[in-house]
Input
Amino acid sequence: SAVISQKPSRDICQRGTSLTIQCQVDSQVTMMFWYRQQPGQSLTLIATANQGSEATYESGFVIDKFPISRPNLTFSTLTVSNMSPEDSSIYLCSVVGDSFGNEQFFGPGTRLTVL
Amino acid sequence: QKEVEQNSGPLSVPEGAIASLNCTYSDRGSQSFFWYRQYSGKSPELIMSIYSNGDKEDGRFTAQLNKASQYVSLLIRDSQPSDSATYLCAVNQAGTALIFGKGTTLSVSS
Output
């Protein structure tokens, strides 16, 4: 598996502000994804982060609200823009790499609270 | 809409018993099947993957797959209190993101 880190691990933000979450992997991976897990819920895919091109968003998620970058094969960022209390969630990045088949591994998550 | 269904539980078993967790999925094109364990406040941890029909055993864990019935299960033998967590079933086609069920909460009492 890969060693995946996320920054920040948690944050408390004010309504209307933006937060950028970083995901760093210790080895090159083929695919990176961003998920959201709202309190008491399962994981919902936000988007697939594509290296060198625009992310692919799932229904209900848009680039203006959740801009994503993936400048190389080991790093990605997710920005939560113009936040509201409904954005309070855990945000998780996950990766798939050639060296571990189709298995997907998760970072430790970023716990976001919006006041 | 591709869906993965799990009983939310809670599933309560005594220490030493077998815990049986079940999952069904709607997409017949699904190729890979996974079980994740998630402790409260932590991120999901991959515990089993299975790709072909039949059983796959890893220590106290056995995953079972029946593609004809679109059914995946996880058996935990000799359940321990440390197994108390939420178990997430996930499926995908190769090269795509996982689709998760809502998870089953397991409680193992000592």
In short: The longest strand of chain A covers residues 89-96. Chain A touches chain B through 21 residues (CB under 8 Å). Chain A has a mean pLDDT of 94.
